[in-house]
C-alpha cells in the first residue's frame, strides 16, 4: 500500500479534534521544510504555519498538498509524524492494518510453538509406550519363538528400563513360556 493511500486513509483520524496540537503540526511543517530532501518550500511552510487559519484547515490543506506531490512526500510526512508524535503515529488506522496479520496466512513462529508445546518428556513417554506395545505384540505372537531372544534382550537392558520393570517383564515371559 502506497504512502499516499495510507495518508488518505488516515486523513480523518489526523484531522479530528485534539489529535494533533498546534506545536506538533508546526514541528512537522518545519521538519518537512528544513530536512533533506526539502519537501515544503519556504512559502508553503509559511502557508501551513499561518496562525490566522484554523488548525484543522491548515492540517487538511497540508495533507492534500502532500498527496498531490506524491508518495515520497507522504513518506516524509509519516517520518516527521513518527519523530514528533510517536504515540499518535502508532495509533494510526493504517498502522493497525499493517500490524494485523492476514487471517489466511500461517504464522510459522506460532505454528512451531503449537507443535512443540508438549516438550521432550511427552515425546519420551509416547515413544516408550509405542516401543512397549511393539515389544509386547512381538513377544505374544504365537507364530514365532521369540521368548528366548526377548529374554536375552531384557536381560541385558538394565540401563534402558528400570530393574523393577525388567523383573516384571522377565516373570511374565517365564509364565508365558510355561503355558
UniProtKB/TrEMBL annotation:
InterPro entries: CARD, CARD19, CARD_BinCARD, DEATH-like_dom_sf. Residues 38-96 form the CARD domain. It is a single-pass membrane protein. One of its GO terms (biological process) is regulation of apoptotic process. This is Caspase recruitment domain-containing protein 19. PANTHER family: CASPASE RECRUITMENT DOMAIN-CONTAINING PROTEIN 19. It comes from Spizella passerina (Chipping sparrow). The chain crosses the membrane at residues 120-138. The keyword Lipoprotein does not apply. It comes from the Eukaryota. Pfam families: CARD (PF00619). The lineage of its organism: Eukaryota, Metazoa, Chordata, Craniata, Vertebrata. It is found in: Endoplasmic reticulum membrane; Mitochondrion membrane. CDD domains: CARD_BinCARD_like.
Amino acid at each position: 500500500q502506497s504512502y499516499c493511500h495510507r495518508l488518505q486513509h488516515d486523513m480523518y483520524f489526523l484531522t479530528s479534534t485534539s489529535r494533533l496540537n498546534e506545536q506538533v503540526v508546526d514541528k512537522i511543517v518545519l521538519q518537512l521544510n528544513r530536512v533533506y530532501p526539502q519537501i515544503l518550500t519556504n512559502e508553503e511552510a509559511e502557508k501551513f504555519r499561518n496562525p490566522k487559519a484554523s488548525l484543522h484547515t491548515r492540517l487538511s490543506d497540508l495533507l492534500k498538498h502532500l498527496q498531490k506531490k506524491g508518495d515520497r512526500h507522504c513518506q516524509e510526512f509519516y517520518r516527521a509524524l513518527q519523530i514528533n508524535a510517536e504515540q499518535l503515529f502508532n495509533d494510526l488506522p493504517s498502522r493497525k492494518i499493517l500490524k494485523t496479520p492476514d487471517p489466511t496466512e500461517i504464522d510459522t513462529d506460532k505454528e512451531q510453538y503449537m507443535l512443540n508445546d508438549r516438550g521432550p518428556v511427552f515425546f519420551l513417554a509416547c515413544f516408550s509406550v509405542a516401543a512397549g506395545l511393539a515389544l509386547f505384540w512381538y513377544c505374544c505372537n504365537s507364530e514365532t519363538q521369540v521368548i528366548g531372544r526377548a529374554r536375552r534382550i531384557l536381560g541385558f537392558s538394565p540401563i534402558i528400563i528400570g530393574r523393577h520393570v525388567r523383573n516384571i517383564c522377565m516373570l511374565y515371559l517365564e509364565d508365558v513360556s510355561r503355558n
